[in-house]
Amino acid sequence: MTGPADATDSPPVPDPGHRREILRLAVPAFLALVAEPLFLLADSAIIGHLGTTSLAGLGVASAVLLTAVNIFVFLAYGTTSVVARRLGAGDLRSALASGIDGIWLALLLGVVTTVLTALLAGPIVGLFGASGAATAEAETYLRISAYGIPPMLVVLAATGVLRGLQDTRTPLVVAVVGFTANAVLSLALVHGVGLGIAGAAWGTVLAQTGMALALGLVVLRGARLHQAPLSFHPGGVLTAALGGIPLLVRTLALRAALVATTWVAADLGDPQLAAFQVSMTVWSSLAFALDALAIAGQAITGKALGASDVAGARAATATMVRWGGWFGLVLTLLLVALHRLVPLGFSSDPEVRTALAAALLVVALGQPVAGVAFVLDGVLIGAGDATWLAAAQVVCLVGYLPMLAAVHLSGVGGTTGLVWLWVAFTGFMALRAAGLSWRAHGDAWLVTGATR
Length: 452
Prior knowledge:
81% helix
């Protein structure tokens, strides 16, 4: 490991090679990331036609389930950074060994999280204060979906390994097959078999299990080829766990912001909560699309700094930030054009449709800011700057909570309340983008070598 690189006065020079590398990694990542929210949108549409209560229940259950899974996103992000750095330093066997440790950690965390989620499903969804019928639907979905948490975490860890190895094509293939299976299973079990919201939950469990097996086998085959250890290694797993703590703190702060936003939405009424569920799913879909550049940033930055190529890391970052802003603007224009059409696919309730159309306009306006924030977040994760990211995300959460409180205490409800809630959330994203931009302009994150 070496210290931060010296600052330079000259701006990074764009390199066509960097552009090609960004596109090689980002395009498959984009397609894989878009596949997931598209099928989540399909799930929302399938459940939405069961009624407003079921869709509202899905909104609550999804917030809890995504929190239970995404707090461990360091299994993907941290693994990508570590594997990419060691790959850049020329130590492929060590890179794969650290990836195997990450998969073992995913299994352990998944089992514990499943038990806790299944046991506490009722009390947890009750905290959101939704109607009794919506709460019952949420509890049903959450209890069943909990069994899919271990495979979901294995998917995160194995995907992180492959991204660190500069392979985003394999996760794309598995994602498309897996999420197609999920949509087909949900449709068959919800409406064909008549299981209702429980059918959608079982479809998710089965599809995620298949994806975990497929990605896990790819990583295991690579580890055997390069003679990396496959057995449970307590020291390596502990190192992976400790290294993930700052990213865990970062993610907990981010998830706290999202859950708090859902909690405020639940107080607006079932139609508004249903509209919020779909609008948040749309926002997540756009975030996944924008995250393609962030994933390229993780892989490219980790590999470049592992190879002590500071100039390359800066040049690639400048290119990705610029692309992130333009991509966000394209998504803004697209969503503005479609904001009245999208609600037609998710609900027949006029109140839900009206609230959703208004919310989507605010979602659209925030996309350029989100594009910059996501790219810089990925770059700093790839650089291993996790401790700073954790502190910054906590600061952003503290800055966001007064905005949420203002919306909640104002007493404004209905569509107007939902619009102001999305305005507050857009302010949260602006705080993130500002902090990340300030950090990226400095040099403290540019630490080179095989380990940080």
